[in-house]
């Protein structure tokens, strides 16, 4: 049976504000409303950036714990809530680790190159990754290019990464001119090896070609992340009404491709199995 696809919604990101789209959620209540309509549209996971009272991306442990607790109380049945440790050039690995240790999220995304910027950080990063696996915190390793993927496989082979309880996010277009992704950017990653080794993966893409990039990923067996963090326009090239419109586009596409869309319950079953590997 063809496995289902998971739609992850990334509603706000670390940098965008209301000046770019009025429906971009910056408060707890705005995020909650956004997640309600996105879950109804087909999302099973929410990639949540916590913002402070000034609207800035924050790794403050208490604030992240407050947002996470509230979102899980309101949306735990229909969504897996994923925190992020994104550094945005401001936060150090120890601050990123402290966030996860202090909040105990069900799932977390982290950029491998940020937690392991060079070999001198590898041992501490490895201990952290194994710690999260022991605590059943589902890790999404964010990989920006082929070099990041190579590092992932190297650390996996050297047993510096636990071979369970994680998946990958392949980012398309982050470092291209104008951050404009193309479906051919997927060719930079060894999808055949990822798939042959049974590694769960997803893709996100920047700019107006987001939908085409994610369609390509779904056809290759990948899950997808969509939302205002990466793109503000719909399939027709017009400004999307809200994040839910972008989620719904993918849900409709999935139906047309004959693919099932995972619910949060399906996703949690997959997560549970990943820790048994």
TrEMBL record:
Superkingdom field: Bacteria
This chain belongs to which protein, by name?
Answer: Class III aminotransferase
A GO molecular function annotation here is: metal ion binding
| Signal peptide boundaries | none
rRNA-binding: present as a keyword of the record?
A: no
Which cofactors does the annotated protein need, by name?
Zn(2+)
Source organism (scientific name): Enterovibrio coralii
* UniProt keyword annotations, A-Z: Metal-binding, Transferase, Zinc
Identify the InterPro entries for this entry.
Aldolase_TIM, BKACE
